[in-house]
Amino acid sequence: MPFSGTEQFVVDVVFLAGGTMQLTASDADEVKDLTSRLGLGCSARLLFCGSELPHGRSLKSLGVGPTREGSPCIYCLEADGRSETGKSHMLTIVNLSGGHIHLPARERDTISGLKQALAEHFSGALRLLFRGEELQDALTLGHYGISTGKTIYLLEATGPAVADEPEEETLGPQVERRIDGLWYPAQVLKAYSAEDGGQILDIRYLDDGNVERGVEMSECRISQAN
Prior knowledge:
Structural class: mainly beta
Radius of gyration: 22 Å
Helix content: under 10%
Number of helices: 2
Distance between the termini: 47 Å
Order of helices and strands: EEHEEEEEHEEEEEEEE
CATH class of the largest domain: Alpha Beta
Number of domains: 3
Strand order of the largest sheet: 2-1-5-3-4
Largest sheet: 5 strands, mixed
């Protein structure tokens, strides 16, 4: 089925080292545009229908586009995994408190380095779990066999241990949290009393799924969505 440059389509990318990914593209895109979106350098090689795709050619000129069978499938082989500019792995980090992100990493990266990258997205003392095992800061991703397409689970230790937390739990209602004069919609996960008699909330933001704990009720208002 023919396709036009004004219409976007999905490309299925299969990494020969393991893992898959989906990209949005159009026939006007060049192969080098795909490698850039994959977070890979010029060392990456893309294969389609058994042939390597030249970096400077457009997808249309190479016949890469949607068909009646569905999305085109491209195989990715990174020629030089030791490249400092190439990003060998795209990991999925799932926050057990809600939300997830995709993060590029290499096998030689340490767990402590990964936590530093995650600190830009999540707060608190971060603990990482893979296949039921907590990852140690001094070891590398390669030590644990973590490669492209793998999922790591994130436990945010932002407050006291679970046993020390108040037992009262409230699921619902929706509130709006004030930050720098703007209001952000969220769902109450837990409500409990502070030492001064005020009310404290644990909330999950509706836009990105991130969780914030220990929010004073005075910084929130009940949403009209209830």
